[in-house]
Amino acid sequence: MKRSEIREAVFYLTFEKMFGSDTPDEVLDTAYEADVFEITEDVEDMFKAVDGHSAETDEVIAKFSEKRQFSRIPKVLTAILRIAVYEMLYDDKIHDNVAISEAVILAQKFAYENDVQFVNGLLGAFSRSRSGDGSGNENTGA
Q1: Residue 3: which residues within 8 A CB-CB, separation 6 or more?
Q2: H or E stretch including 22?
Q3: Quick one: pLDDT at residue 135?
Q4: How many angstroms separate the CA atoms of 46 and 52, rounded?
Q5: What is d(CA 117, CA 139) in angstroms, rounded to the nearest whole number?
Q6: Rounded Cα distance, 31 and 12, in Å
Q7: E strand or H helix at 27, and its extent?
């Protein structure tokens, strides 16, 4: 699976989990039963990691959401943002700009046009705050 396909599968799982009190394993079991999209070990691992860090990623989202209170951000955007912020914070293989671009692609596919700008703006501000210059290069060792 390509990384973008993994990300999209993680989006589906993350979004689904937001609507109930199921554990990540229960969400995965349901997804396996439904057999609507491919779930690999990489998908499972990333989904569980994104879910496990949701408190930290939600804090970042709330802090950098200037125009919307966290509780007012649609779940579809929260799921997309959780994945991107997780990658920016915890995946040294993914450059900030890649995480942002991939989040924008997911938003273009699953959200409204003005929401795409919101996702891009929030993640861009977060990236700039981390690097001081907006490059996000501290993730790559470059």
Answers
A1: 94, 102
A2: none
A3: 46
A4: 10
A5: 24
A6: 9
A7: helix 24-34
The average pLDDT across 92-115 equals 96
Length of the chain: 142
Q: Where do we find the tokens 């993350």?
A: 14
Distance CA 75, CA 58 (A): 12
**Taking the model in full, what pTM does it have?**
0.91
37, 31 Cβ separation under 8 angstroms: yes
> By C-alpha distance, which of 102, 113, 55 is closest to 80?
102
pLDDT digits (tens, 9 = 90+) for 6-62: 999 999 999 999 999 999 999 999 999 999 999 999 999 999 999 999 999 999 999
Q: What is the Cα–Cα distance from 9 to 4, expressed in whole angstroms?
A: 9
Mean pLDDT for the chain? 93
- Considering just the CA atoms, what is the radius of gyration of the chain in Å? 14
